[in-house]
């Protein structure tokens, strides 16, 4: 099955039998989380918004990521740029919310910046020397199929190199994605919710479907979980999850002519997921933000076609929304919160990967891929916290 979806970048499954999962201390320790926030998340690509939020000259969008404040702004030259949202004069925040501006004027002492970040005027100081000395500190900005990402790491590889082949896979799964619009009413994926678990517990849960038969009876009725496949790539994974191709399911109804009948899900290191869920046409991206070692906020933006695909689509959309919000998300939240308690039990040192390359429906090699990448970072940034 995997070969069908493989491309040049696929990482072959490794049979060396490594089975010890990441030690529990990585899920509970305050210093581990501080390093994740200040080093790992600060230096990797983080999802911010959809390109339609910043598509006009002068449109800006202020946001915070893991305690740091930034904004995006589209310049007079049409380039989308990102900056730290802090004035070099005294540290006041430069812009709030979103809107449109022809230049950035600091609300404190009115230092004025062009949309490319250069200082245009500062009362009381010689402009030429000030312009050279002070400008807004930039961040990196990149997009994948309309999703805007930033990184404070100015040396990070562009997304096309960071996750090679991922955009092509998404386009193959959803050829009309570039024309999709943000689903501003969608409750299921268009919202932020909290989970009392470590962000990695939530992603571990996302990256395996070993639990699906036991823990998601409705989902299990809709999906052919035994036919699921997980493929590994540099900095990302891809899951192909076919439905049973039946119209009536215990989860929500599917229209076999108009709906998505194969779930396709991606995870990008470290804390980003993308997917196309079965049901009415859709595509979403999520970012998992650690607030505390045992508390995570999941922020999601979902897209859909400009017009419904058929007269029944809005009602099917509503039924899926009710189900994802009240059933499957709640099931996963309860699992993750329960596991987080387990992470602080003295009897639990680390978990165990079930890796069954001949049976992807129960295999956890995608989760192991996440941990392999995480360990590479942790060994450098943290040293041996636990073995
Ligand atoms: S803090 Fe911005 S102009 Fe003084
Ligand atoms: Fe789940």
């Amino acid at each position: 099955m995997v070969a069908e979806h493989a491309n040049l970048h696929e990482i072959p499954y490794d049979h060396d039998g490594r089975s010890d999962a990441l030690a529990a201390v990585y899920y509970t320790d305050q210093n581990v989380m501080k390093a994740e926030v200040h080093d790992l998340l600060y230096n990797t690509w983080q999802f911010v918004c959809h390109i339609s939020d910043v598509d006009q000259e002068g449109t800006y969008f202020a946001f915070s990521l893991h305690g740091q404040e930034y904004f995006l702004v589209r310049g007079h030259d049409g380039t989308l740029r990102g900056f730290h949202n802090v004035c070099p004069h005294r540290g006041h925040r430069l812009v709030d919310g979103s809107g449109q501006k022809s230049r950035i004027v600091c609300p404190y002492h009115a230092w004025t910046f062009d949309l490319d970040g250069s200082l245009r005027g500062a009362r009381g100081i010689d402009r030429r020397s000030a312009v050279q000395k002070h400008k807004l500190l930039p961040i990196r900005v990149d997009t994948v199929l309309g999703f805007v990402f930033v990184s404070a790491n100015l040396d990070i590889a562009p997304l096309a190199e960071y996750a090679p082949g991922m955009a092509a896979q998404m386009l193959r799964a959803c050829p009309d994605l570039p024309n999709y619009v943000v689903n501003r009413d969608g409750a299921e994926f268009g919202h932020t919710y909290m989970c009392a678990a470590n962000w990695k517990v939530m992603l571990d849960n996302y990256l395996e479907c070993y639990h699906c038969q036991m823990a998601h009876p409705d989902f299990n009725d809709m999906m052919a979980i035994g036919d699921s496949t997980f493929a590994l790539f540099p900095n990302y994974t891809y899951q192909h999850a076919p439905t049973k191709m039946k119209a009536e399911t215990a989860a929500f109804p599917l229209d076999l002519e108009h709906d998505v009948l194969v779930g396709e899900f991606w995870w990008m290191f470290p804390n980003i997921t993308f997917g196309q869920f079965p049901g009415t046409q859709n595509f979403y991206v999520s970012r998992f933000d650690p607030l505390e070692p045992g508390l995570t906020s999941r922020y999601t933006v979902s897209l859909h076609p400009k017009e419904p695909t058929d007269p029944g689509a809005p009602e099917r959309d509503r039924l899926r929304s009710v189900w994802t919000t009240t059933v499957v998300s709640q099931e996963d939240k309860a699992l993750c919160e329960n596991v987080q308690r387990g992470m602080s039990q003295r009897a639990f040192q680390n978990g165990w990967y079930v890796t069954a390359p001949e049976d992807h429906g129960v295999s956890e090699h995608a989760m192991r891929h996440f941990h392999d990448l995480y360990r590479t970072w942790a060994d450098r940034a943290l040293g041996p916290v636990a073995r």
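Residues 197 and 294 are 4 Å apart (CA to CA). The two ends are 35 Å apart (CA to CA).
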